[in-house]
C-alpha cells in the first residue's frame, strides 16, 4: 500500500511551540502535547518535583539543576546473588543481583542499595518535563509512567546513578501502558538495570536524539560496557527510534519483542563501540531497521533473530531497499557497517506494510553518510539549540549542523506590544505573538520556526 508522506508539505509546515518544549513530537508520538500551554514552573526541591510529576494537573516542569535523590529514602541491606561460575561479579568490575533466591551457579551474598533508585518517580498525564541548557539532571531515581497516564514529553534530562553496581538497582524510564510519550534529547548513564523499558502493556512512543551512554565500572560482562540498555517488550506497541546515540553498551541495544505485538521503526541511529549485541528481536515483533550506522559493533543483530518468528526488514542492499517504495512512498536507506560483525539480511515486508499503514507517523531518513556526524553532535542533553531539535522532516532533509551559539538573534517584527515571558516563544516563521521578552531575557533563535526568551 502506498502511503507517501509529502516531504515538501512537511517542510512548509511550521513547528509548533509547546511552552518550553523545543520541536515537534513526530513518528509514533505525533500529536503529543505534554503540558501544552501550562505556565512553566521550576520545582524547588525533590519533594515538589515528585508531587508535580504525579498529580493530575497539566504541567510544564523546568529542571534547572541536579535533583539528587540519593539518600533521600534510606538504604536497604538484604540477600543478593553473585555468579559463582562466571568470573564476573561486583568484586572484579561486574554486577551483583538484588534478589532473595539464587539460581544454579549463583552464590548468596549481602547487597546494600539506595532505596530511591529501585522505585521511580510516578508521572501523571499531560506533563512536559524539560531540562534547561545542560543543567537538567535527575540523580539516583528514574521515572515510572503507570498505565493510563498518557500525553507526556520528557526532554533534555540526564538520568544517572541508579545503583549501577546492582542488577535490579533501578530503571531510568519505565512505561507501563501509555498512549503518547515523546522522549527526546535525554541522556542515560550508570543505571543498574534498564535505561528504557516498556514492560508488558501497550505503548505509543518516539525516542529521539537520546544518548545511551554505557561506560561503567559495573558491567555484567566485565567489559566496561553496560548490558541492560533498552527492553521493548509488550502488547500492541508502536515505537519510533530515531537519531539516538548508543555507545559502549553490550546488550539489549535494543531488545524487541518476545512478549506481544510491536511495530518498531529504527532509523538513523548510531551504534558505536558495542562490545556485545545490538538488535535482539523476538516473536511478535515487526521491525524496520534502516539508515543506521554500526561502528565497532560486535553483533549488529543476533543470529537468533532470524529464527525467532519476528518480522524484520533490514535493508541489506539498495536492490532490496527499493522494495520499500511500494509501501512507504520512498526507498529505504541501507544500513552502514564498519569494523563490525556480520549483518543478517532479513526482508519480510510485514514491517513495511505495518509502518506504511501508519500514515503521518513515517519518518523520512537522512542519508546514512550523514548519520554519525549528525547524531554525535545533536544527541543528548544541552543541545536543544541544534538542528536535532527541529521538526523531523526539516532536520533530516538538511545537512547536519552543529550546536548554535546562544547569542541573541533578531526575531520577526512584533505584531503586538505584550512582552513574552521567560522561557516562552518569542518568534519564528508564522509566529504572530510577541517578539520582545520581559526584562532580563533576550529572544534567541532555536531553529527557523522557534525563538525562545532566555536569560540575558
Automatic annotation (TrEMBL):
Principal location class: secreted
Database matches in SMART domains: Amb_all, fCBD
Signal peptide (from-to): 1-19
A Pfam family reported for this protein in Swiss-Prot or TrEMBL: Pectate_lyase_4
GO process terms (BP): polysaccharide catabolic process
GO MF, one annotated term: cellulose binding
Domain CBM1: 418-454
EC identifiers of the protein: 4.2.2.10
Swiss-Prot/TrEMBL keywords: Carbohydrate metabolism, Disulfide bond, Glycoprotein, Lyase, Polysaccharide degradation, Secreted, Signal
InterPro entries per record: CBD, CBD_sf, Pec_lyase, Pectin_lyas_fold, Pectin_lyase_fold/virulence, PEL
Domain of life: Eukaryota
Catalytic reaction(s) noted: Eliminative cleavage of (1->4)-alpha-D-galacturonan methyl ester to give oligosaccharides with 4-deoxy-6-O-methyl-alpha-D-galact-4-enuronosyl groups at their non-reducing ends
Gene3D superfamilies in UniProt: Single-stranded right-handed beta-helix, Pectin lyase-like
Gene Ontology CC annotations of this record: extracellular region
Localisation per UniProt entry: Secreted
Role summary: Pectinolytic enzymes consist of four classes of enzymes: pectin lyase, polygalacturonase, pectin methylesterase and rhamnogalacturonase. Among pectinolytic enzymes, pectin lyase is the most important in depolymerization of pectin, since it cleaves internal glycosidic bonds of highly methylated pectins.
PANTHER family (UniProt xref): PECTATE LYASE 18-RELATED (PTHR31683), PECTIN LYASE F-RELATED (PTHR31683:SF67)
Protein name, per record: pectin lyase
Source organism per UniProt: Monosporascus ibericus
